[in-house]
Amino acid sequence: MRVEASRRARPSARVVLACRRVKPLSEQVILVTGATDGLGRALASELAGAGATLLIHGRSDERGQDVLGGLPGGPQRFYRADFASLDEVRSMAGELLEREQRLDALVNNAGIGTTVPGGGVRQESRDGYELRFAVNYLSHYLLTRQLTPLLVRSAPARIVNVSSAGQMRIDFSDPMLEHGYDGVRAYCQSKLAQVMFTFDLAEELEGRGVSVNCLHPATYMPTKMVLAARGSAVSTLEEGVGATLRLVAGESLDGITGRYFDGREEAAPDPQANDRHARALLRELSNRLTDSGH
Q1: Rounded to whole angstroms, how far apart are CA atoms 291 and 138?
Q2: Catalytic residue among 79, 129, 141, 187
Q3: What share of the chain is helix, strand, coil (3-state, %, to 5)?
Q4: Rounded to two decimals, what is the model's pTM?
Q5: Contacts of 56 (CB under 8 A, 6+ apart)
Q6: Looking at residue 51, which CATH number applies to its domain?
Q7: Which residues contact 164 (CB under 8 A, 6 or more apart)?
Q8: Residue 172 belongs to what domain range?
Q9: Is residue 1 part of a domain?
């Protein structure tokens, strides 16, 4: 199941920053989450080939070192955390803040699909939250909140949230889907939450030199989660990498923030993304579940 994003209207939350030119990739330090496989790994390779310093995230030291060994250029660095644990996310953020002097771009890409892991059965994170909401959204919410001061100090900087055109309205009476669980719904509401956070954070950071955008990179790329769910791909991995790279480093995106893109085209997400009351409910829920002070 895929929920298509309409291109008829632009999100009301979009913001235009005072234009600050993006740094050349050879001068950037970029963190890519979920960079040991799929889109994240391909994007990391492309960025490293262009001369960027890559901070690679994954949940396996062995796979992280394997990725580092295959990247051109250097020096590149690996940070380990299982995004099913908010404590591990906090620990990783603390390590980053201690070791890194700057961060020019954060690509929130790590995620799990509709059926893997669990085969469509409802699962919970180590913190007791619905697993897809926790890994795809809450972990990145917390990581981004922790790293925002470093991004602001490094401005101009960019945050790119890898979302999906598959979006479903969040039922705030049952956000953890304890009743009538469905893996597709769990995945789609976690991806809508990313879009809602994008719009909120873009407004919050207006005028501070950090842009925040999100995108559906491409339709059914040949990644593990897609192949497990439907058995075949539609788009190429290169299409998704190109669309994501554009948001990370494209000069045409200078000064643009608070937008959702379907590939390379600006699009309209699920209407709940533009509902300020719903975004406030999500912000309160996210702060409470991650113990954030925002």
Answers
A1: 11
A2: 187
A3: 45, 15, 40
A4: 0.90
A5: 32, 35, 36, 44, 64, 67, 68, 71, 76, 77, 78, 79
A6: 3.40.50.720
A7: 187, 188, 191, 216
A8: 15-290
A9: no
For the record, the structure tokens of 287 come out as 């702060």
**Strand intervals (E) in 127-218:** 157-162, 210-216
Domain count of the fold of the chain: 1
Is 6 contained in some domain? no
Structure tokens at 155: 């401005």
Any domain includes 227 = yes
Answer yes or no: is 3 within a domain.
no
pLDDT tens, per residue, the chain with 294 residues:
333 333 334 444 444 444 579 999 999 999 999 999 999 999 999 999 999 999 999 999 999 999 999 998 778 999 999 999 999 999 999 999 999 999 999 999 999 999 889 888 999 999 999 999 999 999 999 999 999 999 999 999 999 999 999 999 999 999 999 999 999 999 999 999 999 999 999 999 999 999 999 999 988 666 655 545 555 446 688 999 999 999 999 999 999 999 999 999 999 999 999 999 999 999 999 999 999 876
137 is catalytic: no
